[in-house]
Amino acid sequence: MRVCKKITSVFALVLTASILLCSAGAEATSSEGNHYTYIYDCWGYDRESPDAYSVTRTMTGSDFECGNFVEPSGLYVIGNDMYVVDTGNSRVVKFTYENDVFTLVKEIKEFTNNGAADSLNKPQDVFVDEKGETYIADTGNYRIVHLDAEGNLVKVITRPDDETIDQTTDFLPQKLVVDSSKRIFTQVQNVNKGFMEFASDGSFTGFVGASKVTYNILEYLWKMVATKEQRAQMTLFVPTEYNNLCLDSEGFIYATIGVTDENTNPLLAQPIRKLNAKGTDILVRNGYFEPAGDLWWTGHGEMSGPSKFVDIACLDNDVYYALDNTRGRVFAYDFQGNMLYAFGGHGYKAGYFINPTAIEDLGDTLVVLDTNLGSVTQFTLTEYGTYINQGLSQYKRGDYDESAATWQKVLKLNGNYDQAYIGIGRSYLRQKKYTEAMEYFKLKLDSTNYSKAYKLYRKQWFEDNIGIIITVIVILILFGYGYGFVKRARKEVEKG
């Protein structure tokens, strides 16, 4: 009998241990698989989310005849063409992407300059317009090179001879874009007055979008009481430099600022800007939190400090992706500044990065360049990510019924997705279904949109019931006059 009890006890112990181990293993696998993509809820807590993008491939130069990339630093996509700025090899490599296949087209290393051979030196960025004309930030040669579609030199832009520019420093263009008017906007190293703007003929026209000064309040107070020698050793309060830019479909400039100081609040620094023609920041920030990457971070270790954005890419539906170099993540935001999701991380696994420096959208995919690994990782939208982008696009087009239906599909895949509730509420708001909209806004504590819906609901109710309201007012007035007349008549009778 005792033997049976012992056997039963051992069996129960083994069974319990097996269940616990399986549960722990399943939990670890689930956590690792799902937490790759996450969102922030209305309370600021990070929540696991289905993956919006999945890794399609990771490619290097060794996969093609061009050979390995060496410290590539720039990436540009137009149509089905992708350009990799291979800085270490002083070249720009062009690929085409068709039928889910990348094909090497050509390398840009040399060109003819006034009849003599000329070559690139440590370029850092490239821009190609719809006509195939190429603009290269030829950083090592202190210039911008403009080539036509056949690779012939059009012009070279060097440091302007202007009193607003320090003539003792080198002209080091790092990033650039060209708008529809052929104006060139470039981010230049050690220039904190904004982007330098050049006209179509290459003449310097001024600076655009000078950044606001950011500082630590404690340092500011300390400077007020410090000695002259102490102040000389402190960091000057100067405008923060931009580190990258891109153009959206309407020609507005999206720009990023790398916030590296742990004492600087990234929400105050506003690391993502949207600049109009006057250089004014017009980015909409109506989300729970401003577009600034991670809300929480540690002050220790290799990945300490706030998110540092190093590049940005825009879709036609005004969704934009910001690339965080601090923790190797991609943050997606909609046109209202709501965070849609974030994914990625530091590591050597597929979909992770060591030193991500550039991001572009290629059709329905994203491509991210890693300088240290010399690789380009391609991500493809999942069903979940497709529904999110589709819901936003339908709303922008005015298809509010379809947008609400798409957001319902998102909720079936992720019932905790706040932006789906808000998206449904916005669709109802546009359809003048104010009570339904208020219900969805209330669920996710969206006080701004709730107030807007309530205001419109109150206005609509008043307009629908104005006849009844006027009738009631008239009746009350007549009743008042009638009651007064009867009261006066009764007094007259009593006196008589």
Question: Could you describe the 3D structure shown?
Answer:
With 496 residues, the protein is of the alpha+beta class. Helices cover 31% and strands 29% of the residues. The protein has ten helices and 27 strands. It has a six-stranded antiparallel beta sheet, with no helix packed on it. The chain has a four-stranded antiparallel beta sheet with strand order 3-27-26-25. A hairpin with a 6-residue loop joins strand 15 and strand 16. Helix 5 packs parallel to helix 7 (418-430), helix 6 (400-413) runs antiparallel to helix 7 and helix 7 packs antiparallel against helix 8. The longest helix has 33 residues, at 2-34. It is elongated. The N and C termini lie far apart (116 Å). The model is unreliable at 1-35 (pLDDT under 50).
Q: Tags for this entry?
A:
disordered N terminus; single chain; 10 helices; 6-stranded antiparallel beta sheet; 29% strand; elongated; alpha+beta; 496 residues
Name the average pLDDT. Answer: 85
- Largest sheet descriptor: 6 strands, antiparallel
Using only C-alpha atoms, the radius of gyration works out to: 30 Å
Percent of residues in helices comes to 25-40%
User: Poorly predicted ranges (pLDDT <50, ≥5 residues)?
Assistant: 1-35
Structural class: alpha+beta
List the topology elements.
Layout: H1 2-34, E1 37-40, E2 46-48, E3 53-60, E4 74-78, E5 81-86, E6 91-98, E7 101-108, E8 110-113, E9 116-119, E10 125-128, E11 134-138, E12 143-147, E13 153-157, E14 173-178, E15 184-188, E16 195-198, E17 204-208, H2 217-225, H3 228-233, E18 242-247, E19 253-257, H4 266-269, E20 272-275, E21 309-314, E22 320-324, E23 329-333, E24 339-344, E25 356-362, E26 365-370, E27 375-381, H5 383-397, H6 400-413, H7 418-430, H8 434-443, H9 447-464, H10 466-495
Antiparallel strand pairs: 1-2, 1-24, 3-27, 4-5, 5-6, 6-7, 8-9, 10-11, 11-12, 12-13, 14-15, 15-16, 16-17, 18-19, 19-20, 21-22, 22-23, 23-24, 25-26, 26-27
